[in-house]
Protein backbone atom coordinates (compact mmCIF):
# COMPACT_ATOMS: atom_id res chain seq x y z
CA UNK A 1 0.00 0.00 0.00
CA UNK A 2 2.67 2.50 -1.01
CA UNK A 3 2.59 3.64 -4.62
CA UNK A 4 -1.13 4.37 -4.87
CA UNK A 5 -1.07 6.50 -1.71
CA UNK A 6 1.49 8.84 -3.25
CA UNK A 7 -0.37 9.53 -6.49
CA UNK A 8 -2.89 12.25 -7.05
CA UNK A 9 -5.90 10.01 -7.62
CA UNK A 10 -8.37 10.68 -4.79
CA UNK A 11 -9.88 13.86 -6.20
CA UNK A 12 -10.19 12.19 -9.59
CA UNK A 13 -12.07 9.24 -8.06
CA UNK A 14 -14.45 11.66 -6.30
CA UNK A 15 -14.90 13.56 -9.56
CA UNK A 16 -15.75 10.31 -11.35
CA UNK A 17 -18.33 9.44 -8.68
CA UNK A 18 -19.86 12.94 -8.97
CA UNK A 19 -19.98 12.62 -12.77
CA UNK A 20 -21.71 9.23 -12.63
CA UNK A 21 -24.23 10.62 -10.15
CA UNK A 22 -24.91 13.69 -12.30
CA UNK A 23 -25.45 11.48 -15.37
CA UNK A 24 -27.96 9.32 -13.52
CA UNK A 25 -25.79 6.18 -13.63
CA UNK A 26 -25.30 6.30 -9.87
CA UNK A 27 -28.08 6.91 -7.32
CA UNK A 28 -27.12 4.79 -4.29
CA UNK A 29 -24.82 6.67 -1.84
CA UNK A 30 -23.14 3.40 -0.86
CA UNK A 31 -21.94 2.79 -4.41
CA UNK A 32 -20.86 6.43 -4.74
CA UNK A 33 -18.71 5.96 -1.64
CA UNK A 34 -17.20 2.81 -3.15
CA UNK A 35 -16.36 4.50 -6.47
CA UNK A 36 -14.74 7.38 -4.57
CA UNK A 37 -12.69 5.02 -2.39
CA UNK A 38 -11.37 2.38 -4.82
CA UNK A 39 -8.13 3.37 -6.65
CA UNK A 40 -8.86 1.99 -10.10
CA UNK A 41 -5.38 2.83 -11.41
CA UNK A 42 -3.83 0.41 -8.89
CA UNK A 43 -5.99 -2.42 -10.20
CA UNK A 44 -5.27 -1.38 -13.80
CA UNK A 45 -1.61 -0.32 -13.77
CA UNK A 46 -1.30 -0.74 -17.54
CA UNK A 47 -3.75 -0.51 -20.43
CA UNK A 48 -3.79 -0.47 -24.21
CA UNK A 49 -5.25 2.06 -26.65
CA UNK A 50 -5.42 1.97 -30.43
CA UNK A 51 -3.80 4.86 -32.28
CA UNK A 52 -5.03 6.40 -35.53
CA UNK A 53 -3.55 3.49 -37.50
CA UNK A 54 -5.28 0.86 -35.37
CA UNK A 55 -2.03 -0.19 -33.69
CA UNK A 56 -2.27 -0.97 -29.98
CA UNK A 57 -0.14 1.28 -27.76
CA UNK A 58 0.57 0.56 -24.10
CA UNK A 59 0.21 3.21 -21.40
CA UNK A 60 0.63 3.26 -17.65
CA UNK A 61 -2.11 4.64 -15.45
CA UNK A 62 0.15 6.36 -12.90
CA UNK A 63 0.95 9.18 -15.35
CA UNK A 64 -1.29 12.26 -15.56
CA UNK A 65 -2.70 10.99 -18.87
CA UNK A 66 -3.18 7.52 -17.44
CA UNK A 67 -4.89 8.79 -14.28
CA UNK A 68 -7.32 10.86 -16.34
CA UNK A 69 -8.19 7.76 -18.33
CA UNK A 70 -8.47 5.51 -15.29
CA UNK A 71 -10.91 7.87 -13.57
CA UNK A 72 -13.17 8.39 -16.55
CA UNK A 73 -16.19 6.36 -17.73
CA UNK A 74 -13.97 4.44 -20.14
CA UNK A 75 -13.34 0.74 -20.74
CA UNK A 76 -9.63 -0.01 -20.39
CA UNK A 77 -8.26 -2.86 -22.50
CA UNK A 78 -5.80 -4.78 -20.33
CA UNK A 79 -4.87 -7.92 -22.28
CA UNK A 80 -4.20 -8.65 -25.95
CA UNK A 81 -3.88 -11.90 -27.89
CA UNK A 82 -2.47 -12.52 -31.35
CA UNK A 83 -5.07 -13.66 -33.88
CA UNK A 84 -3.22 -14.35 -37.11
CA UNK A 85 -1.87 -11.04 -38.41
CA UNK A 86 -3.55 -8.84 -35.81
CA UNK A 87 -4.06 -8.43 -32.09
CA UNK A 88 -7.41 -8.35 -30.33
CA UNK A 89 -8.45 -7.60 -26.78
CA UNK A 90 -9.19 -10.58 -24.51
CA UNK A 91 -9.67 -8.82 -21.16
CA UNK A 92 -10.58 -5.35 -19.99
CA UNK A 93 -11.65 -3.22 -17.06
CA UNK A 94 -15.29 -2.42 -17.80
CA UNK A 95 -16.15 1.26 -17.82
CA UNK A 96 -17.32 2.38 -14.36
CA UNK A 97 -20.64 3.86 -15.50
CA UNK A 98 -21.76 0.48 -16.83
CA UNK A 99 -20.55 -1.36 -13.73
CA UNK A 100 -22.44 0.89 -11.31
CA UNK A 101 -25.59 0.69 -13.44
CA UNK A 102 -25.35 -3.09 -13.24
CA UNK A 103 -24.75 -3.05 -9.49
CA UNK A 104 -27.77 -0.82 -8.98
CA UNK A 105 -29.91 -2.88 -11.38
CA UNK A 106 -29.16 -5.94 -9.23
CA UNK A 107 -30.52 -4.10 -6.16
CA UNK A 108 -27.72 -5.35 -3.92
CA UNK A 109 -28.31 -4.89 -0.18
CA UNK A 110 -25.98 -5.07 2.81
CA UNK A 111 -25.45 -8.71 3.90
CA UNK A 112 -26.07 -10.00 0.36
CA UNK A 113 -23.57 -12.59 -0.89
CA UNK A 114 -22.44 -11.89 -4.43
CA UNK A 115 -20.59 -13.92 -7.05
CA UNK A 116 -18.79 -11.91 -9.75
CA UNK A 117 -18.14 -13.95 -12.90
CA UNK A 118 -15.17 -12.48 -14.75
CA UNK A 119 -12.64 -11.17 -12.23
CA UNK A 120 -10.53 -9.40 -14.82
CA UNK A 121 -8.63 -6.57 -13.12
CA UNK A 122 -10.64 -6.92 -9.91
CA UNK A 123 -12.26 -3.48 -10.08
CA UNK A 124 -15.85 -4.75 -9.83
CA UNK A 125 -14.76 -7.14 -7.08
CA UNK A 126 -13.16 -4.24 -5.19
CA UNK A 127 -16.34 -2.17 -5.37
CA UNK A 128 -18.32 -5.13 -4.04
CA UNK A 129 -15.84 -5.82 -1.26
CA UNK A 130 -15.82 -2.17 -0.22
CA UNK A 131 -19.61 -2.14 0.01
CA UNK A 132 -20.31 -5.62 1.39
CA UNK A 133 -17.10 -6.76 3.07
CA UNK A 134 -14.74 -9.53 1.99
CA UNK A 135 -16.71 -12.51 3.31
CA UNK A 136 -19.75 -11.60 1.22
CA UNK A 137 -17.88 -11.46 -2.13
CA UNK A 138 -16.61 -14.22 -4.42
CA UNK A 139 -15.12 -13.77 -7.88
CA UNK A 140 -13.95 -16.20 -10.59
CA UNK A 141 -12.04 -16.05 -13.87
CA UNK A 142 -10.64 -18.70 -16.22
CA UNK A 143 -7.25 -16.99 -16.54
CA UNK A 144 -4.92 -17.86 -13.63
CA UNK A 145 -2.60 -14.93 -14.34
CA UNK A 146 -5.50 -12.48 -14.08
CA UNK A 147 -6.77 -14.07 -10.88
CA UNK A 148 -3.37 -13.96 -9.16
CA UNK A 149 -2.68 -10.38 -10.28
CA UNK A 150 -6.10 -9.29 -9.02
CA UNK A 151 -5.56 -11.17 -5.73
CA UNK A 152 -2.22 -9.38 -5.15
CA UNK A 153 -3.53 -5.92 -6.02
CA UNK A 154 -6.74 -6.34 -4.02
CA UNK A 155 -4.74 -7.47 -1.00
CA UNK A 156 -2.50 -4.43 -1.38
CA UNK A 157 -5.63 -2.31 -1.03
CA UNK A 158 -6.81 -4.25 2.00
CA UNK A 159 -9.45 -6.36 0.23
CA UNK A 160 -9.51 -10.14 0.69
CA UNK A 161 -12.57 -11.55 -1.14
CA UNK A 162 -12.71 -15.21 -2.20
CA UNK A 163 -11.15 -15.61 -5.66
CA UNK A 164 -11.18 -18.74 -7.79
CA UNK A 165 -9.69 -19.79 -11.12
CA UNK A 166 -12.22 -21.78 -13.11
CA UNK A 167 -14.58 -21.74 -16.06
CA UNK A 168 -17.21 -19.09 -15.38
CA UNK A 169 -20.07 -21.28 -16.52
CA UNK A 170 -19.44 -23.58 -13.54
CA UNK A 171 -19.89 -20.85 -10.96
CA UNK A 172 -18.37 -21.44 -7.53
CA UNK A 173 -20.56 -24.07 -5.93
CA UNK A 174 -18.46 -24.62 -2.82
CA UNK A 175 -19.21 -21.08 -1.62
CA UNK A 176 -22.87 -21.00 -2.70
CA UNK A 177 -25.62 -20.03 -2.23
CA UNK A 178 -25.51 -16.43 -3.45
CA UNK A 179 -28.09 -13.68 -3.40
CA UNK A 180 -26.77 -12.05 -6.58
CA UNK A 181 -24.57 -13.04 -9.53
CA UNK A 182 -23.05 -10.38 -11.78
CA UNK A 183 -21.31 -11.46 -14.99
CA UNK A 184 -18.97 -9.07 -16.81
CA UNK A 185 -18.78 -11.29 -19.90
CA UNK A 186 -21.34 -12.38 -22.48
CA UNK A 187 -22.77 -15.87 -22.87
CA UNK A 188 -24.86 -17.43 -25.64
CA UNK A 189 -26.77 -19.44 -23.02
CA UNK A 190 -27.17 -18.77 -19.30
CA UNK A 191 -25.57 -21.68 -17.37
CA UNK A 192 -28.13 -23.48 -15.22
CA UNK A 193 -25.38 -23.97 -12.63
CA UNK A 194 -25.81 -20.28 -11.80
CA UNK A 195 -29.48 -20.84 -11.09
CA UNK A 196 -28.63 -23.78 -8.84
CA UNK A 197 -26.23 -21.59 -6.86
CA UNK A 198 -28.73 -18.76 -6.23
CA UNK A 199 -30.91 -18.43 -3.16
CA UNK A 200 -34.68 -18.44 -3.83
CA UNK A 201 -35.57 -14.94 -4.98
CA UNK A 202 -31.97 -14.26 -5.93
CA UNK A 203 -31.00 -12.62 -9.20
CA UNK A 204 -28.38 -12.81 -11.94
CA UNK A 205 -27.47 -10.03 -14.37
CA UNK A 206 -25.69 -11.23 -17.50
CA UNK A 207 -25.13 -10.19 -21.10
CA UNK A 208 -26.95 -12.85 -23.15
CA UNK A 209 -25.80 -12.90 -26.77
CA UNK A 210 -26.30 -15.97 -28.99
CA UNK A 211 -24.51 -14.06 -31.77
CA UNK A 212 -22.33 -10.99 -32.30
CA UNK A 213 -24.25 -7.91 -31.00
CA UNK A 214 -27.39 -10.11 -30.79
CA UNK A 215 -28.66 -9.60 -27.26
CA UNK A 216 -28.40 -7.44 -24.17
CA UNK A 217 -28.15 -7.52 -20.38
CA UNK A 218 -30.86 -9.71 -18.86
CA UNK A 219 -31.97 -9.47 -15.22
CA UNK A 220 -33.19 -12.95 -14.26
CA UNK A 221 -34.78 -13.91 -10.94
CA UNK A 222 -34.61 -17.33 -9.30
CA UNK A 223 -37.85 -19.28 -9.11
CA UNK A 224 -38.15 -22.89 -7.88
CA UNK A 225 -37.84 -24.35 -11.37
CA UNK A 226 -36.36 -21.58 -13.50
CA UNK A 227 -34.56 -18.28 -13.97
CA UNK A 228 -36.81 -15.68 -15.55
CA UNK A 229 -36.80 -11.97 -16.27
CA UNK A 230 -36.47 -9.24 -18.86
CA UNK A 231 -33.76 -7.46 -20.78
CA UNK A 232 -32.61 -4.04 -19.57
CA UNK A 233 -33.56 -0.89 -21.42
CA UNK A 234 -30.05 0.31 -22.20
CA UNK A 235 -27.97 -1.87 -24.49
CA UNK A 236 -24.57 -3.08 -23.31
CA UNK A 237 -21.91 -5.42 -24.59
CA UNK A 238 -19.16 -7.51 -23.04
CA UNK A 239 -16.44 -9.78 -24.35
CA UNK A 240 -17.55 -13.38 -24.79
CA UNK A 241 -16.85 -15.70 -21.86
CA UNK A 242 -13.72 -17.74 -22.55
CA UNK A 243 -13.67 -21.48 -21.94
CA UNK A 244 -10.21 -22.35 -23.28
CA UNK A 245 -7.25 -20.01 -23.01
CA UNK A 246 -5.69 -21.14 -26.28
CA UNK A 247 -8.68 -21.98 -28.44
CA UNK A 248 -8.21 -21.61 -32.17
CA UNK A 249 -10.59 -19.88 -34.52
CA UNK A 250 -12.62 -22.27 -36.69
CA UNK A 251 -11.49 -21.96 -40.32
CA UNK A 252 -14.21 -20.76 -42.66
CA UNK A 253 -15.09 -22.72 -45.77
CA UNK A 254 -14.66 -21.09 -49.14
CA UNK A 255 -17.46 -20.63 -51.66
CA UNK A 256 -15.23 -19.09 -54.31
CA UNK A 257 -16.79 -19.60 -57.70
CA UNK A 258 -20.28 -20.17 -56.32
CA UNK A 259 -23.08 -18.65 -58.35
CA UNK A 260 -24.41 -15.53 -56.58
CA UNK A 261 -28.14 -15.13 -55.92
CA UNK A 262 -29.30 -11.57 -56.47
CA UNK A 263 -32.61 -10.04 -55.41
CA UNK A 264 -33.92 -7.04 -53.48
CA UNK A 265 -35.20 -6.63 -49.92
CA UNK A 266 -37.18 -4.01 -48.04
CA UNK A 267 -35.67 -5.01 -44.68
CA UNK A 268 -33.18 -2.39 -43.37
CA UNK A 269 -29.64 -3.58 -44.07
CA UNK A 270 -27.72 -3.54 -40.76
CA UNK A 271 -29.88 -4.48 -37.74
CA UNK A 272 -26.77 -5.53 -35.74
CA UNK A 273 -26.03 -1.79 -35.52
CA UNK A 274 -29.38 -0.09 -36.07
CA UNK A 275 -32.00 -2.43 -34.54
CA UNK A 276 -30.48 -5.01 -32.23
CA UNK A 277 -33.85 -6.34 -31.11
CA UNK A 278 -34.45 -7.48 -34.68
CA UNK A 279 -30.94 -8.90 -34.81
CA UNK A 280 -31.61 -10.98 -31.69
CA UNK A 281 -34.93 -12.17 -33.10
CA UNK A 282 -33.07 -13.27 -36.25
CA UNK A 283 -31.35 -15.88 -34.09
CA UNK A 284 -34.79 -17.27 -33.26
CA UNK A 285 -35.48 -17.59 -36.98
CA UNK A 286 -32.48 -19.71 -37.93
CA UNK A 287 -29.46 -17.42 -38.09
CA UNK A 288 -26.48 -19.83 -37.99
CA UNK A 289 -24.03 -19.74 -35.10
CA UNK A 290 -20.72 -18.04 -35.76
CA UNK A 291 -21.94 -15.47 -38.28
CA UNK A 292 -19.78 -12.36 -38.47
CA UNK A 293 -20.90 -8.92 -39.62
CA UNK A 294 -19.07 -6.20 -41.46
CA UNK A 295 -19.06 -3.54 -44.14
CA UNK A 296 -18.01 -3.46 -47.77
CA UNK A 297 -16.41 -0.19 -48.86
CA UNK A 298 -16.91 1.46 -52.21
CA UNK A 299 -13.54 1.00 -53.99
CA UNK A 300 -13.61 4.56 -55.35
CA UNK A 301 -14.90 6.60 -52.41
CA UNK A 302 -13.79 4.25 -49.60
CA UNK A 303 -17.16 4.93 -47.98
CA UNK A 304 -19.44 2.12 -46.71
CA UNK A 305 -21.50 0.74 -49.58
CA UNK A 306 -22.98 -2.47 -48.16
CA UNK A 307 -23.47 -4.39 -44.94
CA UNK A 308 -22.14 -7.95 -44.99
CA UNK A 309 -22.76 -11.28 -43.28
CA UNK A 310 -20.38 -14.26 -43.39
CA UNK A 311 -21.14 -17.75 -42.01
CA UNK A 312 -18.68 -20.50 -41.07
CA UNK A 313 -19.89 -22.60 -44.02
CA UNK A 314 -18.71 -19.83 -46.36
CA UNK A 315 -22.17 -18.42 -47.07
CA UNK A 316 -22.28 -14.64 -47.47
CA UNK A 317 -24.83 -11.86 -47.78
CA UNK A 318 -24.12 -8.39 -49.14
CA UNK A 319 -26.89 -5.82 -48.57
CA UNK A 320 -26.61 -2.43 -50.24
CA UNK A 321 -26.93 0.50 -47.86
CA UNK A 322 -28.57 2.81 -50.38
CA UNK A 323 -32.26 2.14 -51.02
CA UNK A 324 -34.04 2.65 -54.30
CA UNK A 325 -36.89 5.14 -54.65
CA UNK A 326 -39.36 2.43 -53.59
CA UNK A 327 -37.31 1.52 -50.48
CA UNK A 328 -35.62 -1.62 -51.74
CA UNK A 329 -32.00 -2.66 -51.11
CA UNK A 330 -29.98 -4.82 -53.45
CA UNK A 331 -29.12 -8.20 -51.90
CA UNK A 332 -26.44 -10.61 -53.13
CA UNK A 333 -25.99 -13.99 -51.44
CA UNK A 334 -23.59 -16.86 -52.03
CA UNK A 335 -23.14 -20.28 -50.47
CA UNK A 336 -25.54 -22.94 -49.22
CA UNK A 337 -27.23 -20.88 -46.46
CA UNK A 338 -29.55 -17.95 -47.27
CA UNK A 339 -28.38 -15.68 -44.45
CA UNK A 340 -30.81 -12.83 -45.04
CA UNK A 341 -34.00 -14.92 -44.69
CA UNK A 342 -33.81 -15.04 -40.85
CA UNK A 343 -33.38 -11.26 -40.73
CA UNK A 344 -36.44 -10.70 -42.92
CA UNK A 345 -38.53 -13.05 -40.76
CA UNK A 346 -37.27 -11.33 -37.60
CA UNK A 347 -38.13 -7.89 -38.92
CA UNK A 348 -41.63 -9.08 -39.74
CA UNK A 349 -42.00 -10.54 -36.23
CA UNK A 350 -40.88 -7.22 -34.77
CA UNK A 351 -43.46 -5.31 -36.83
CA UNK A 352 -46.25 -7.76 -35.96
CA UNK A 353 -45.56 -7.21 -32.24
CA UNK A 354 -45.74 -3.42 -32.56
CA UNK A 355 -41.98 -2.81 -32.64
CA UNK A 356 -41.01 -4.03 -29.15
CA UNK A 357 -38.07 -2.46 -27.32
CA UNK A 358 -35.71 -4.33 -24.99
CA UNK A 359 -37.83 -4.28 -21.80
CA UNK A 360 -40.66 -6.05 -23.64
CA UNK A 361 -38.35 -8.99 -24.34
CA UNK A 362 -37.71 -11.62 -21.69
CA UNK A 363 -35.88 -14.85 -21.10
CA UNK A 364 -36.75 -18.10 -19.29
CA UNK A 365 -33.91 -20.48 -18.40
CA UNK A 366 -34.38 -24.03 -17.10
CA UNK A 367 -32.10 -27.03 -16.72
CA UNK A 368 -32.10 -27.86 -20.43
CA UNK A 369 -33.80 -24.93 -22.17
CA UNK A 370 -33.44 -21.20 -22.80
CA UNK A 371 -36.52 -19.53 -24.24
CA UNK A 372 -36.99 -15.98 -25.51
CA UNK A 373 -40.35 -14.24 -25.30
CA UNK A 374 -42.09 -10.97 -26.12
CA UNK A 375 -44.32 -9.47 -23.39
CA UNK A 376 -45.26 -12.80 -21.73
CA UNK A 377 -43.40 -16.09 -21.06
CA UNK A 378 -46.28 -17.96 -22.71
CA UNK A 379 -45.16 -16.44 -26.04
CA UNK A 380 -41.73 -18.09 -25.94
CA UNK A 381 -39.47 -19.85 -28.42
CA UNK A 382 -36.24 -21.77 -27.90
CA UNK A 383 -33.16 -19.57 -28.24
UniProtKB/TrEMBL annotation:
InterPro entries: PCMT (IPR000682), SAM-dependent_MTases_sf (IPR029063). It is found in: Cytoplasm. Its EC number is 2.1.1.77. GO terms for cellular component: cytoplasm. It is an enzyme of class 2 (transferase). One of its GO terms (biological process) is methylation. It comes from the Bacteria. Residues 246-267, 308-341 are annotated as: Disordered. One of its GO terms (molecular function) is protein-L-isoaspartate (D-aspartate) O-methyltransferase activity. Keywords: Cytoplasm, Methyltransferase, S-adenosyl-L-methionine, Transferase. Residues 253-262 have a biased composition (Basic and acidic residues). SUPFAM superfamilies: S-adenosyl-L-methionine-dependent methyltransferases (SSF53335). Signal peptide: none annotated. Belongs to the methyltransferase superfamily. L-isoaspartyl/D-aspartyl protein methyltransferase family. This is Protein-L-isoaspartate O-methyltransferase. It comes from Actinopolyspora saharensis.
Amino acid sequence: MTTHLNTNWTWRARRLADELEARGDLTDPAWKTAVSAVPRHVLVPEAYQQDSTGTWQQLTTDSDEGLELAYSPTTLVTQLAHRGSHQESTSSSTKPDLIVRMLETLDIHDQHRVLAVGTGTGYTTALLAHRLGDRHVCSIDIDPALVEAARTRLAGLGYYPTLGCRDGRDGLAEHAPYDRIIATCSVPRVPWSWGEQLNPGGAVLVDVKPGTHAGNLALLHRYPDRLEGRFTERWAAFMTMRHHLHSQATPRESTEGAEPRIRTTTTPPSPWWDNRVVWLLAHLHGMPAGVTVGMRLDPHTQQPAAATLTAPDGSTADIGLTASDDGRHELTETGPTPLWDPVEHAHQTWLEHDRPNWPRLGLTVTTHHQRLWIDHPENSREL
